[in-house]
Design brief:
alpha/beta; Rossmann fold; 2 domains; four-stranded parallel sheet; 13 helices; globular; binds phosphoric acid mono(formamide)ester; binds norvaline
């Protein structure tokens, strides 16, 4: 029985499809299972700011009849005010589930080792599994057959890219990632993704040429060039990412009925032009809405025996 969601690598293909199906059920009937978390409490332990992740979990727990406690970065101060292990052991005495948003993935792993309750990774520097599963659901909603979808990610090889790659490789979807030199996806993760892809038939490619990557895409996806915690690198990065902006002329190489996706928050006229993110191909707010349904499905999958 799967207990934590530290990365989508923790899940089998069957698990991923189960979560996608549960998401659809909960999207159709948001208040079904409304007693599922009655008398239960969920802690959100966040080292970084959040809109979608925090609000979708809080509303999801409310729909399920539970209580959510948000612990802001200054509140718990993981590893500074007290050790990660002590936080995990203490919170396990009060709570039924922890959603953690951290800088390092090691903090997620450490919470998981020391907690007696499930840990959901609500974003680390390495992964964003709740986002990756939502993205898969959103793509399935638009294209139905995930096995024949071509997803192109243009931009920084980051946490969102990693989880998108892993999610797609679990279900046979194809992904091409175009990054500037020096900002490629993590090599070890790419190898794990390629191994999954061999089993499911996904075709995974990486390149430094955004035009080549977008050619024939069903989905064009981008994320911020400056992730949380990278603010000091902004000046240097911005210069290197010119040419990787998603705009109309780049998207002209995608299929006619392509969709544009972005996990948000977005920086208009940095990684994406206004006319693309606010244009007729954009599904970013369907994607944002689906965070709610997917978060609920993840909690149900992990906690409902
Ligand atoms: N996409 C996403 O995780 O958004 P937040 O950082 O606002 O939670
Ligand atoms: N890559 C971004 C995702 C935000 C949801 C970050 O880590 O800041």
């Amino acid at each position: 029985m799967q207990r934590d969601l530290k990365s989508i690598l923790d899940l089998s293909t069957v698990d991923v499809h189960k979560i996608l199906n549960l998401t659809q059920t909960l999207k159709n009937k948001p208040l079904s299972k409304n007693k599922f978390l009655q008398g239960k409490s969920v802690g959100l332990v966040f080292e970084k700011p959040s809109n979608r992740t925090r609000v979708s979990f809080e509303v999801g727990v409310y729909h399920f009849g539970g209580k959510c406690i948000y612990l802001s970065p200054g509140e718990i101060n993981l590893g500074v005010r007290e050790s990660v292990a002590d936080v995990a052991k203490t919170l396990s005495r009060y709570l039924d589930l922890i959603v953690a948003r951290t800088f390092s993935q090691e903090t997620i792993e450490e919470l998981s080792v020391h907690a007696d309750i499930p840990i959901i990774n609500g974003l680390s520097d390495l992964y964003h599994p709740c986002q990756g599963l939502t993205d898969l659901f959103t793509i399935q909603e638009k294209f139905e057959d995930l096995a024949n979808v071509n997803i192109t990610y243009v931009g920084d090889g980051n946490n969102v890219t990693h989880s998108l790659l892993i999610a797609a490789s679990k279900v046979g979807a194809n992904v091409t990632v175009a990054t500037p030199q020096g900002f490629e996806v993590n090599e070890e993760i790419l190898q794990q993704v390629q191994k999954e892809a061999e089993k499911t038939g996904s075709v995974i490619k990486t390149t430094h040429d955004p035009k080549e990557a977008v050619t024939g895409a069903d989905v064009v996806y981008t994320d911020t060039w400056i992730s949380m915690g990278q603010e000091e690198e902004a000046k240097e990065k911005l210069a290197k990412f010119e040419g990787f902006r998603v705009n109309r002329s780049l998207c002209a190489h995608a299929k006619e009925n392509f969709v544009f996706m972005h996990c948000l928050p977005a920086h208009r006229d940095q990684e994406v032009c206004k006319n693309t993110i606010d244009g007729e191909h954009s599904i970013v707010f369907d994607q944002a809405e689906n965070r709610l349904h997917t978060q609920k499905a993840i909690m149900l999958f992990l906690l409902d025996n």
